[in-house]
């Protein structure tokens, strides 16, 4: 059992990193955690309602969920669990304990893709992930192919 | 229909009136009942006081009080109508039956007196109140009776007020209800009038939906949507006939022209052979058009009679590819299994295999045809509830503003150029996919490629 951390920006394209993770660690079963970074909201309403978190739930569109399910079904025996988490930290030590709590074995990062800012409060957690001291693997997404449909198409998961 | 409407209106009014009248009636009965109880209780209290006084007057506790009480009574207590007083000394051994000789009172009255020291009773509008008085070890029953004329007058008055009120308000409610239901049905009546004016000549007319977001405007909106669909199908039927006759006459014209040319004079056998070949090719084209028209008609109208069986989507894809191979032996269709689910239960869909293969092969054929035989990728994927098929080519694409016409029979995009086709394949495929509760999404960029995404609900009913 390996615990793999993969950052996500809720685009279907970024889910391709899961392919890469399975290619690399395919012999073991995997617990994959998709992490999205958010700046914590310090206002009273933000603390009470967790409004930014709600913003993110809007980002998890029907297509994104369908794409997650497609991947789950594709790697039914390899992927033991696929879950999505939000990361609210701002310091390196917080990141380290976040990763420690999830018993992280590896972090997968894209070599040829820049994560987009999904919502205004999104943060780029890639630098912190790199510095956290856990094994980091860079994978190519092979996104060179031609994009015909809009971003929310399942075909983005294909290697074309 | 006029009478029908009136009947509904009357029904609603009557129902409304009935409900309200019943409520008022219940309220009136309650008011009457409590008023009666209140006033008889009041009267019994007055009789009680008199009974006590009678007892004290005739059997005083101490000498001298008798006259005092008599004076008090005469001075301050009004004589009630038909007021009578009775008393009797009880000796041990007296039963509880007909103790008083001069007045007939029920047995329960005496029993109440013995048990509670007091009792009340009324017969018609004559009221009786009795007490048990004790003096020097003697027990005396004292009963005072009087006719309650106040209560009679008051209650009659109340009864007539309530009755008049009930009848009056029922009439008022009926009138209001009639007006109210008329108001309710007004928009519907208007709508009926408007709909009656719409016929095949002016299908473009629409109902006024208004700005309100209520049930009536909802109904109007639904009507308008239905009219939209009607108009579209009407128009596409009209276009269909003209397009179909055009498509059918083109090969016929070439057949006739070629035959006439060949028959004009004697020709060499090679020339005849050439002519016959052209005629054969055109006749085959004609046959293909007619066949696809037939299947289009079948899928369009006969949908409910198709046999539904559980199928595996990957097998369907292979079958469709095979039928494409027959037409384009050197096609470059690649079936991409990168997203294929591990669990083949997720590949099951319900449907008719012939129709689905026809639909898939039509879409795959289009992909090959309009991409100068570049690579076509066909992928299969499954979420937990839906099965996805993605067919992606690198062909000429479809201009954006023409995307919405691609499902019209015989419509061909402006950039198809030399590529032969009849414009039936995609409408046919869409009809079939719709029959299977599927969805068809086409996205395209001109000169870059087209992506068709089909999704079907996964059949979870029974295992293979």
From TrEMBL, chain A:
Protein name (Swiss-Prot/TrEMBL): Nucleotide-binding universal stress UspA family protein
Organism: Taibaiella chishuiensis
Upper classification of the organism: Bacteria, Pseudomonadati, Bacteroidota, Chitinophagia, Chitinophagales
UniProtKB/TrEMBL annotation, chain B:
Keyword Transport found: no
Membrane topology recorded in Swiss-Prot or TrEMBL: Multi-pass membrane protein
Cellular localisation: Cell membrane
Gene Ontology molecular functions: ATP binding; phosphorelay sensor kinase activity
UniProt key word Transmembrane: yes
Domain of life according to the entry: Bacteria
Stored Pfam families: HAMP (PF00672), HATPase_c (PF02518), HisKA (PF00512)
Residues annotated as domain Histidine kinase: 243-460
EC number: 2.7.13.3
Transmembrane segments: 12-35, 161-180
Keywords, ordered alphabetically: ATP-binding, Cell membrane, Kinase, Membrane, Nucleotide-binding, Phosphoprotein, Transferase, Transmembrane, Transmembrane helix, Two-component regulatory system
PROSITE patterns hit by this protein: HAMP (PS50885), HIS_KIN (PS50109)
Family annotation (SMART domains): HAMP (SM00304), HATPase_c (SM00387), HisKA (SM00388)
Catalytic activity: ATP + protein L-histidine = ADP + protein N-phospho-L-histidine
InterPro entries assigned to the protein according to its UniProt record, in alphabetical order: HAMP_dom (IPR003660), HATPase_C_sf (IPR036890), HATPase_dom (IPR003594), His_kinase_dom (IPR005467), HisK_dim/P_dom (IPR003661), HisK_dim/P_sf (IPR036097), HssS/ArlS-like (IPR050398), Sig_transdc_His_kin-like_C (IPR004358)
CC per GO annotation: plasma membrane
Domain named HAMP: residues: 182-235
CDD domains noted in UniProt: HAMP, HisKA
Main localization category: membrane
Protein name per UniProt: histidine kinase
């Amino acid at each position: 059992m390996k615990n793999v951390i993969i950052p996500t920006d809720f685009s279907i394209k970024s889910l391709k990193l899961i392919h890469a993770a399975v290619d690399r660690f395919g012999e073991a079963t995997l617990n994959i955690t998709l992490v999205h970074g958010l700046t914590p909201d310090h206002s009273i309403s933000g603390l009470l309602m967790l409004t930014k978190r709600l913003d993110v739930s809007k980002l998890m569109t029907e297509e994104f969920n369908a794409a997650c399910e497609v991947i789950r079904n594709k790697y039914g025996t390899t992927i033991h669990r696929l879950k999505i988490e939000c990361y609210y930290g701002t310091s390196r030590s917080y990141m380290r304990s976040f990763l420690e709590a999830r018993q992280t074995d590896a972090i997968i990062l894209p070599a040829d893709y820049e994560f987009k800012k999904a919502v205004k409060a999104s943060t780029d957690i890639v630098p912190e992930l790199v510095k956290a001291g856990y094994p980091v693997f860079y994978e190519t997404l092979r996104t060179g192919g031609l994009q015909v449909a809009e971003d929310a198409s399942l075909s983005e998961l294909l290697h074309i | 229909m006029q009478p029908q409407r009136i009947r509904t209106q009357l029904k609603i009014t009557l129902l409304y009136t009935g409900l309200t009248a019943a409520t008022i009636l219940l309220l009136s009965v309650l008011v009457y009942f409590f008023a009666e109880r209140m006033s008889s209780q009041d009267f019994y209290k007055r009789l009680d006081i008199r009974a006590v006084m009678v007892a004290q007057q005739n059997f005083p506790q101490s000498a001298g009080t008798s006259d005092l009480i008599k004076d008090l009574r005469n001075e301050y207590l009004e004589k009630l109508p038909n007021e009578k007083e009775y008393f009797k000394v009880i000796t041990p051994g007296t039963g509880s039956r007909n103790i008083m000789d001069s007045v007939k009172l029920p047995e329960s009255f005496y029993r109440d007196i013995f048990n509670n020291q007091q009792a009340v009773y009324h017969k018609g509008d004559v009221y009786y109140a009795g007490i048990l008085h004790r003096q020097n070890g003697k027990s005396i029953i004292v009963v005072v009776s009087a006719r309650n004329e106040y209560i009679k007058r008051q209650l009659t008055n109340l009864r007539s007020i309530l009755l008049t009120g009930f009848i009056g308000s029922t009439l008022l409610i009926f009138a209001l209800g009639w007006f109210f239901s008329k108001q309710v049905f007004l928009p519907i009546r208007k709508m009926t009038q408007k709909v009656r004016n719409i016929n095949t000549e002016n299908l473009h007319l629409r109902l006024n939906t208004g700005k309100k977001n209520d049930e009536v405007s909802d109904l109007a909106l639904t009507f308008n949507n239905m009219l939209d669909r009607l108009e579209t199908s009407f128009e596409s039927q009209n276009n269909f006939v003209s397009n179909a006759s055009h498509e059918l006459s083109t090969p016929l014209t070439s057949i006739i022209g070629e035959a006439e040319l060949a028959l004009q004079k004697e020709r060499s056998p090679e020339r005849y052979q050439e002519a016959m070949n052209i005629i054969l090719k055109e006749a085959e084209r004609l046959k293909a058009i007619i066949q696809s028209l037939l299947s289009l008609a079948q899928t369009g109208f006969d949908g409910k009679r198709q046999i539904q069986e559980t199928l595996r989507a990957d097998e369907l894809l292979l079958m469709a590819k095979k039928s494409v191979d027959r037409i384009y032996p050197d096609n470059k269709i690649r079936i991409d299994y990168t997203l294929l689910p591990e669990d083949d239960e997720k590949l099951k869909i319900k449907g008719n295999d012939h129709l689905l293969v026809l639909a898939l092969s039509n879409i795959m054929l289009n992909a090959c045809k309009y991409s100068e035989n570049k690579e076509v990728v066909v992928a299969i994927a499954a979420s937990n509830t839906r099965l996805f098929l993605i067919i992606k080519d690198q062909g000429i694409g479809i201009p954006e503003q023409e995307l919405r016409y691609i499902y019209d029979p015989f419509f061909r995009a402006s950039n198809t150029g030399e590529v032969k086709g009849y414009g039936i394949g995609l409408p046919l495929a869409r009809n079939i996919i719709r029959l299977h509760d599927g969805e068809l999404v086409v996205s395209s960029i001109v000169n870059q490629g087209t992506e068709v995404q089909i999704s079907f609900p996964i059949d979870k009913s029974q295992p293979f």
